[in-house]
Amino acid sequence: MPRTLSSTPVAFSQFDFKGALFYEAQLKRETDKLSAWRILFNFHRPARTENPDALRNQYEALFRRSFGDIIAPISIPDTTLIRRAIDTGESVTASQAKATLHAAITSLVAYCGINRTTERF
Predict the structure, then answer these.
(1) pTM to 2 decimals?
(2) Which tens digit of pLDDT belongs to each residue from 43-68?
(3) Which backbone phi and psi does 44 adopt, to 5 degrees?
(4) Which of 36, 49, 40, 37 is nearest to 10 (CA)?
(5) What is the phi-psi region of residue 56: left when phi exceeds 0, alpha when psi lies from -120 to 50, beta otherwise?
(6) Strand order of the sheet with strand 6-10?
(7) Which end of the chain is more exposed for a tag (fewer CB within 10 A), N or C?
(8) Helix 14-30, helix 55-67: angle, nearest 10
(9) β-strand pairing of 37-44 with 6-10
């Protein structure tokens, strides 16, 4: 049976950081579900530099210091396909143009304990 996980997708921003802190506090205070909660880096771009002063690297370090093991080991890449899939219902398939996003979603599904092969989302 799949494990029941909930996740909060976040981008590297103050708004998302503060929102995740608030949500974590609410889960601790009002439920017993914190152990099943994960943070998912959404619209994720790999670092272009190792420089710790780069804003993107500062945000990643801030999230990792604050949430540690709560961060899912999967991230959803920054691509216009995400918005098109959400806004227009465009399918995310394993085609060459969509393969990176499809692979990330497939990994997320497997991480949640759902074992099946899906050609499109």
Answers:
(1) 0.81
(2) 898 889 999 999 999 999 999 999 99
(3) -80, 135
(4) 40
(5) alpha
(6) 6-10, 37-44, 71-77
(7) N
(8) 10
(9) parallel
User: What phi, psi does 114 have (nearest 5°)?
Assistant: -95, 115
Provide the residue count of the chain.
121
Q: Are 112 and 5 in contact, with CB atoms under 8 Å apart?
A: yes
Whether 95 has a pLDDT exceeding 70, the answer reads: yes
Phi, psi values for residue 41, rounded to 5°: -70, 120
Name the residue among 74, 72, 73 with its Cα closest to residue 38.
Answer: 72
Residue written as token pair 């009002």: 30
**What single-letter DSSP state applies at residue 35?**
G
- Which amino acid, residue 88? T
* Tokens linked to 39: 């943070």
In angstroms, rounded to a whole number, what is the distance separating the alpha carbons of residues 72 and 7? 8
DSSP string computed for 43-102: EE---S---TTSHHHHHHHHHHHHHGGGEEEEEEE--HHHHHHHHH----BSSGGGHHHH
